[in-house]
Amino acid sequence: MKVKLRNPDKTHEVAGPATVADVLAGLEINPETVLVIHDGELVTRDRTLPDDAEVEVRPVISGGSRSPRKLRCHACGHPAVLEIARHRASYCATHLVDHVRSQVRTAIDKHTMLSYDERVLVAVSGGKDSLALWDILLDMGYSVDGLYLGLGIGNYSARSEQVVTEFAQRRGATLHTVDLADEYGYDIPDATRIPRRSACGVCGLSKRYVFNRVALEGGYEVMATGHNLDDEAATLLGNVLRWQTPFLARQSPALPEAGGRARKVKPLYRLGEREMAAYCVVRGLDYIVEECPLVGGNTVLRYKDALNELERHSPGTKAQFLFGFLDRARDEHFSEPGHSDGDAISCSECGMPTSPPKGQATDEPVRCAFCRTRGRVLATL
To answer: The pTM is what?
Structure first.
């Protein structure tokens, strides 16, 4: 059989018939980190594939299936397309969609993230999580528009914009598009010129700035992002390892409006990357499988790898780690003493809200982090 690996793309010829589990074992692939697709459908590790099969092994960076038993949907008994080990449950395509929407509903209700009379802006990148989130919120009846930020990363950005635009057209949804180079004079590849500053750091700062600005200027009450369980657990691990107390204090699925910054929510924080990738497959949502070409060396990916190994041997580790912090540790141990929304002032260059450096009087001119970084990038061009 022909087995196509993605990201990086590579094809293997494997003798069949063979079970999915045997194919993955022969290729030394951790089944917790991939989806296996045959004839456009997800297949579980118990499925036997014929010798002439053409199979895609799609990386998703998550935990997942371990059981060799015949997998059936726990809700209806039909053949399962995905097993979620931490829930000790398997789902058919229909009930997988129900499961994902149920987890989003729980997240929204638990943290009072959204209401039906508010306008919501979701950041969409072309990846599985943001597109799935937009799809889910639209189906749930929320008033939600999308925002795509063009980063100028060659074919990767061109393909991302195409995917997002086509999704918006299919759903009849409103999409705002901002091009970083056109609006601010630089793109993310330009940011690689700055010494001692990663392109990922500049990218994240740029996204946060533009997202908040468009939300405020567009009159949106809430910003929603596609951060999932894996993202949040990896971020938490990094913050704990470095004891980044201010970051720990701010890590939450729902951040209130503060100092001129719109409310920000993460409705996917209860769902893993593997669940979101599977949701996109069964819903027929095209998304960017390839990783950003500038992401190499990103420390968050190493934290995800470490957590995936723990998850592989002890399903539920990531959820217990993140939910335990949110439910018991964050508010009690990592509050920000002395923090006040009134500390925010307007940036002297762009007028957006920012905070003065520690020790600086609030009546002195202050440039926000985005304007300072933008100035450094433009100085290299």
So the answer is: 0.81
